[in-house]
Design brief:
CATH superfamily of one domain: General secretion pathway protein M, EpsM
CATH architecture of one domain: 2-Layer Sandwich
Order of helices and strands: HHEEHEEHH
Structural class: alpha+beta
Distance between the termini: 208 Å
Number of strands: 4
Shape: rod-shaped
Oligomer: single chain
Largest sheet: 4 strands, antiparallel
C-alpha cells in the first residue's frame, strides 16, 4: 500500500528556506560589519600615524626656525665683530700715518708758501694757505705729487686777496692721502718682483775655489791678457809642455860652523 503525505510540506520547505536565507543574511551582515570595522580601524590607524608624523615635522620645523633665528643672530654678531676688526685694523695701519703726514707737510712745503688750515675727510685732505705767487703754488703741488704719503693735488681756487703783502695769494687745494706700505703690499700680491740688489763680483781666487768646490761647475775662464799697444812686438806663445813632476828635495846635512877666534876682528 503506498504512503501518501498529506501534510503541507511545501509551506514547511518554504519556511526552512526562509530561515536559511535569514541566517545567511545575518552571517553576511556580520562579516560585512566586521570587514567594515577592520577597514575603519586600518584607516584610523593610518590617519593617526600621519597625524603623528605631521606633529613631529611641525616640532622639527619649529626647532629649525629657532636654530635659524639663532644663526641669524650669530651672523649679525659676526658681522659686527668683523666690522670692529676692520676698524681696528685700519686704525692700526694708519696709526703712524698722521706722524708721516705732518712730516711730509713739513718736507713738501715750498719757499714762499704758508699753510693756514687743513681738513681731512676720509682719504681726502683740503689744504688752505697763502703764497707769494702762482709759481710757488705750482712748486708746492709738484712736491705733493712726488710725496709718498700724498698725491693727486687738485687746485680748487687761487686768488689775489690778502692783507699780507708778502703772501698776497690765497689758495685752496685737495690732495689724496696714500700709504706706501699698502702700495707695496698690493704690488707683492699682484706678483711684481721686487728689484734684486746687484751682487758684488767675487775675486778671481775665490771664484776659482767656489768653482772647484761645486761638482759639475764650469771652470773659471782664464784672465784675458791686455791688448798690446800698436807698434809693439807681440811675443810668440811658448810651446805647450806637459807638466813635469816636482823633483824630490835632497836631504843635506848642515855643516858645523866654526866660531871665529878671539883675535880675529872683522
Amino acid at each position: 500500500m503506498a504512503k501518501i503525505n498529506l501534510l503541507p510540506w511545501r509551506a514547511e520547505r518554504r519556511k526552512q528556506r526562509q530561515q536559511e536565507f535569514l541566517t545567511m543574511l545575518g552571517v553576511a551582515a556580520a562579516v560585512a560589519a566586521l570587514v567594515s570595522l577592520l577597514i575603519v580601524m586600518y584607516y584610523n590607524g593610518q590617519i593617526d600615524g600621519q597625524n603623528n608624523r605631521n606633529k613631529y615635522l611641525s616640532d622639527q620645523i619649529t626647532l629649525l626656525d629657532k636654530q635659524i633665528a639663532e644663526i641669524a643672530d650669530l651672523d649679525k654678531k659676526k658681522a659686527g665683530l668683523l666690522r670692529r676688526k676692520q676698524v681696528i685694523e685700519e686704525l692700526q695701519a694708519s696709526r703712524s700715518q698722521m706722524v708721516h703726514l705732518f712730516d711730509e707737510l713739513g718736507r713738501t712745503i715750498a719757499d714762499g708758501t704758508q699753510i693756514t688750515s687743513l681738513q681731512q675727510n676720509g682719504t681726502q685732505m683740503t689744504l688752505q694757505g697763502r703764497a707769494q705767487s702762482n709759481a710757488r703754488v705750482s712748486t708746492y703741488m709738484r712736491n705733493l705729487e712726488s710725496s709718498g704719503w700724498m698725491g693727486d693735488p687738485d687746485l680748487s681756487v687761487i686768488e689775489l686777496r690778502g692783507s699780507d703783502s708778502g703772501l698776497p695769494n690765497e689758495f685752496s687745494l685737495k690732495v689724496t692721502l696714500k700709504n706706501p706700505n699698502d702700495a707695496a703690499a698690493t704690488a707683492l700680491a699682484a706678483g711684481t718682483p721686487a728689484p734684486a740688489a746687484a751682487e758684488a763680483p767675487l775675486p778671481s781666487s775665490m771664484a776659482g775655489q767656489d768653482a772647484a768646490a761645486v761638482p759639475g761647475a764650469a771652470p773659471p775662464a782664464p784672465p784675458v791678457a791686455p791688448a798690446a799697444a800698436p807698434g809693439a812686438s807681440t811675443p810668440a806663445p811658448a810651446p805647450a809642455t806637459a807638466p813635469a813632476t816636482a823633483p824630490t828635495p835632497a836631504t843635506t846635512t848642515p855643516e858645523p860652523t866654526t866660531p871665529p877666534a878671539a883675535g880675529d876682528k872683522r
